[in-house]
Amino acid sequence: MRIVLPILIVLLALPTAQPLPATCADPCTITAMVEAYVLPANVIADNSTVDFVSGDIGHVTADGISGSTCFSVSQGPGNPSPGIRFYISGGQLRANYSDGSGSHDNACTSAVALPDGSFVLPFYCRLHPNMRGALVVSA
Fold it and tell me: Which of 6, 33, 72, 133 could form a disulfide with 40 if both were Cys (CB 3.0 to 4.6 A apart)?
């Protein structure tokens, strides 16, 4: 929450005519390394895919702060997570991915809606709870 709240405050303080920071290319790669995300805040376009990768030990990245509502993926050295496609539909953020337990298409109820229709989604590592970050999905 300590990372997500300042990001949200900064994004809400931007004039609506100003664009968000540059987006991470699709597919966006977010690296977990040494108990931190290399870039803890990332902006992606609607309908983009995110791949979580580990630069060191195993990690389990999930949305939210204390529980997963739309995704939870494992990644280890040389073993990236399945790609997660984030998209906005019906006024909510959703995550679509497939893993060993099947296909998932879940609402991201921990995402915070911004006035322009974008969403901020906090994420963290279940194995290293001090590892936190945020994904901004722009409308």
Answer: 133
Nearest to 7 by CA among 120, 91, 86, 125: 120
Residue 108, both tokens: 């991201």
- Check: CB of residue 71 under 8 Å from CB of residue 97: yes
Condensed to tens digits (0 to 9), the pLDDT of residues 87-119 reads 999 999 999 999 989 999 999 999 999 999 999
> Rounded CA gap, 69 and 122, in Å?
11
Provide the sign of the torsion angle of the four alpha carbons 137, 40, 124, 81, taken in this order. Answer: positive
Q: Hey, what are 65's tokens?
A: 């702060």
- The DSSP call for residue 69 is S
Would you say domain 26-138 falls under CATH 2.60.40.420? Answer: yes
SS3 47: coil
pLDDT tens, residue by residue, 20-71: 455 799 999 999 988 899 888 999 999 999 999 998 999 999 998 666 679 9
Q: Which residue has the tokens 């959703």?
A: 94
**Residue closest to 46 by CA, chosen among 118, 103, 105, 106:** 118
Instruction: Report the DSSP beta bridge partners of residue 93.
Output: 88
